[in-house]
Amino acid sequence: MRFSDINKIQRPDLVTANLSDYADYYLNFDWDLANQCIDGLPQGGINIAYEAVDRHLLHGLGDKVAIRWLGKTGSQQEFTYRQLAEQTSRFASVLSSLGLHKGDRVFGLAGRTPALYIALLGSLKCGCVFSPLFSAFGPQPIRSRMELGDARVLVTTERLYRKKVMPWRKDLPGLEHVLLLDASADIPSGCTDMSQLMAVADPAFPVAATGPEDMALLHFTSGTTGTPKGAVHCHEAVIYHTLSGHFALDLHPEDIYWCTADPGWVTGTSYGIIAPLSIGLTMIIDEAEFDATHWYKVLEQQQVSVWYTAPTAIRMLMKAGDDLVGKYDLSNLRFMASVGEPLNPEAVLWGQRVFGQPFHDNWWQTETGGIMLANFAAETVKPGSMGRPLPGITAAIVTRNTQGLSFIDTHDEVGELALKSGWPSMFRTYLNAEARYNACFCDGWYLSGDLACRDEDGYYWFIGRSDDVIKTAGHLIGPFEVESILLQHPAVVEAAVIGKPDPVAGEVIKAFVALKDGFTADDVLRKALLGHARKHLGSAIAPKEIDFRNNLPKTRSGKIMRRLLKARELGLPEGDISTLESDEK
Ligand code: ATP
Ligand code: MG
């Protein structure tokens, strides 16, 4: 069976599908076949930008819309694959004329604007390494990442430059060029107007001769557990992005696809740029911030067929209520997926109720570069589970000791989630932190730092990050299980639990809870929630204390920072909070 045939296997009914119907996905998988999902450079080698853009011109997709950009103010702009090829070539020519070479680092700091996407792809075309930064970072996190990454070029806006880069620019002499996307007449010194350079740049650029192992992207982790790490990814990652885009997100060339993640995070690059473009579909970029009504309008007006989003957003949509979603015609939507945090079963079932289909949870990390586990298109969704390993991925539940790894083969036993090394989008190192990188591996396996268990059907269930797991009265408790029960209560929209040292139990569980509109944070509700948790979890693992908050501290990529709640509760130092976003008490 060829790879292209694997793609043609009929999409099953998600409810009635029998896993054995899809044995082909696993049985016929082999990496030599999988590699056929990309073309490779005509002269040999691999370049992500070539796969994502230029090759489509040879396959008759030149006039197809690659990107439809929806501006904050209601404007729209479209780029066909041919236009994207030309624009990215121009940007590669700009870099080349500035003297940049293969391996040089280009950073991006901007909102979701087309020029940022063009800069990313154009940098890769030129053989440079691109590192996307989230535009809401403060000056210090921007500086430390650019310093670590040896930035030679920064692509940004004038406002962001003045506010967040200018104050320390002189301390980073290696940063030779700052290209402004929207330069005013009064351009700051040391900056260049990018549109002027683009206007005179050569629209033809021979794609750099990059090989599979050449560094392409530098992605910083979310900083949920501590200081963000710079994960290095290579050009051959595109094989896996394309493949997993098919398997986990069910992407087809005829789809209209919307990934809501910002390219400042790995999801917004792997599945917000590379996978969808490599597959040759039309993708939506929405510049605006989250707003429930606006999001439903985008889904309806753009006739989105595949939607990839995150638990935080789903919970916000749930908060906005079922009536709102009922006002929109979302009949084009046929596949919805979620990543980034545990997706509570409640949210999966809500999807089923209001959209007529479940959210498909999937699991991966900045380090893995692509989706590893998924309730994927061809399999039955199990609400609350992260799904099964994608074809080509071998996962296991392990414990690590001085002798090496022990594999847990029994069902439902908790251990660390590990992946057998060797898939194409795997990170190659943490930049300038080789020892930290090496510590992630044992006996040829990558250890994720997340705890999970596997059920009898081979589905993996998230327990918690190893740092967040709570030990109380001899029980090992994952925060996810307790939080999911709290979320079942009609008053609760967000929940996070931590372990608090206790002289008798070792730790007791404390919960932090945010309420839906219309509910009052008082002792009556507190008692009701404690009772609800005790009823469903048993008194041993139910929270003993509950605090109400307006919202929970989250990283800018939308992950609840339990370590911060814990540090505050225990009066300990807060640690690295460079990625902290919302945090109202
Ligand atoms: P840092 O490594 O800096 O602490 P981070 O781990 O949050 O930050 P990311 O690489 O963005 O940075 O996130 C990966 C992590 O997100 C996973 O290790 C896991 O803990 C969590 N995660 C992602 N998807 C899921 C999911 N579907 N279910 C549960 N957890 C998930
Ligand atoms: Mg991590």
- Using only CA atoms, what is the Rg? 24 Å
Bound molecules: adenosine-5'-triphosphate, magnesium ion
Biggest sheet statistics: 9 strands, mixed
Mean pLDDT: 92
Shape from CA axes? Answer: globular
Find the structural class using helix and strand composition: alpha/beta
| SS summary, helix count | 19
CATH homologous superfamily label of the largest domain: ANL, N-terminal domain
Helix content: 25-40%
CATH architecture of the largest domain: 3-Layer(aba) Sandwich
GO molecular function, one term: ATP binding
InterPro entries: AMP-bd_C, AMP-bd_C_sf, AMP-binding_CS, AMP-dep_synth/lig_dom, ANL_N_sf
Keywords: Acetylation, ATP-binding, Ligase, Nucleotide-binding
Domain AMP-binding enzyme C-terminal: 481-559
Provide a descriptive summary of the structure in words:
It is a single chain. This protein is α/β, with parallel strands linked by helices and 585 residues long. The chain folds into 2 domains: 5-454, Rossmann fold (3-Layer(aba) Sandwich); 467-582, ANL, C-terminal domain (GMP Synthetase, Chain A, domain 3). Helices cover 31% and strands 24% of the residues. The protein has 19 helices and 28 strands. The strands form 6 sheets. The chain has a 9-stranded mixed beta sheet. Strands 17, 18, 19, 21, 22 and 23 form a 6-stranded antiparallel beta sheet that branches. Strand 1 (65-70) and strand 2 form a beta hairpin. Helix 4 (48-58) packs across helix 6 and helix 4 runs parallel beside helix 11 (266-279). The longest helix is centred in the first third of the chain and has 17 residues, at 81-97. The radius of gyration is 24 Å and the shape is globular. The chain starts with a helix and ends in a 15-residue tail after the last helix. 51% of the residues are buried. Mean pLDDT is 92; it is low at 6-21. Adenosine-5'-triphosphate (ATP) binds at residues 221-226, 228-229, 339-343, 361-363, 365-366, 386, 448, 450, 462, 465, 557, 559. Adenosine-5'-triphosphate is lined by residues 221-226, 228-229, 339-343, 361-363, 365-366, 386, 448, 450, 462, 465, 557, 559.
